[in-house]
């Protein structure tokens, strides 16, 4: 990637990728797939889709993006299109899994192996966190309402210059002064203030 | 709740503390839920395959319980099941001498032309009357199966790109 491409936000890179893709050039598009895939991953996982299934959902979103490449009117909207599609596809995957789980009633012997409904909250993975502070943050984060966890996961997973690009789909606002905190980040800060084990500095 | 909490205005611009907090949360999220290696490559390969074949019915992976901890490298067989309206395909992947061995089973049992697409080419075989097929010595890496009934009826089906 060139220095110039680095300076562009993810949203701008998405717009350029789409324009070039339509013209038959795939370099910027491939780079954009690599850059935006982590963000899509966290959007999908934030909706409670299990890891393996989330892989398929992310793939499906990209395939669908290419199929719609000619119909996305504003190249500037490429990233927002992806984020909205990812959220929708994840939602429908979760719904499908729950329906399948409800249909497949486990035999008594199968209880241990019964597919659990995936949970985006706190799980055994918190042991992967090395510092007490990170564990505290993850625990407090899990207390946020589901929608706030989804939004903050998405914002946190993006690089800093990309706040603006994803503000639109997360309910944060872009003002003359900058990106607003939004109610979820405000709530997380308040919860952390209340936690004895959390220190700001 | 009735508890006194420091309130922060959602309408204020983010300050340095917000940014630090988001950066830390980003690191935490990436640690507990890392993006799978090669996911973008598999997505790009899925796009390529989608351009090659048309009118495919996409099979959906059936969810299996996740292991409690990730990252352990056990060299055992792994079974993945895909399903959609016309059929269900179960594949078991096990390490062999010259690569991965793929044991497949199609239900309802039917004779199918089986193609395994990889970025550097494809491997073909046919299922028997019981719907069973075997592909041996498949190199590791992204791959997708495409199945078509040998009698030519019905739509072809494909799996998502998975990592062998």
Automatic annotation (TrEMBL), chain A:
State the Pfam families in the record.
Answer: Sigma70_r2 (PF04542)
Record keywords: DNA-binding, Sigma factor, Transcription, Transcription regulation
| Superkingdom of the source species | Bacteria
**Keyword field contains Transcription regulation:** yes
Indicate whether Disulfide bond appears among the record's keywords: no
- Residues covered by the RNA polymerase sigma-70 region domain: 33-98
In terms of Gene3D superfamilies, this protein maps to: 1.10.1740.10, Winged helix-like DNA-binding domain superfamily/Winged helix DNA-binding domain
Which NCBIfam families does the entry mention? Answer: sigma70-ECF (TIGR02937)
Family listed: Belongs to the sigma-70 factor family. ECF subfamily.
Q: What is this protein identified as?
A: Sigma-70 family RNA polymerase sigma factor
| Species name | Actinotalea lenta
Q: What is the lineage of its organism?
A: Bacteria, Bacillati, Actinomycetota, Actinomycetes, Micrococcales
Automatic annotation (TrEMBL), chain B:
> What's the name of the protein?
Carboxypeptidase regulatory-like domain-containing protein
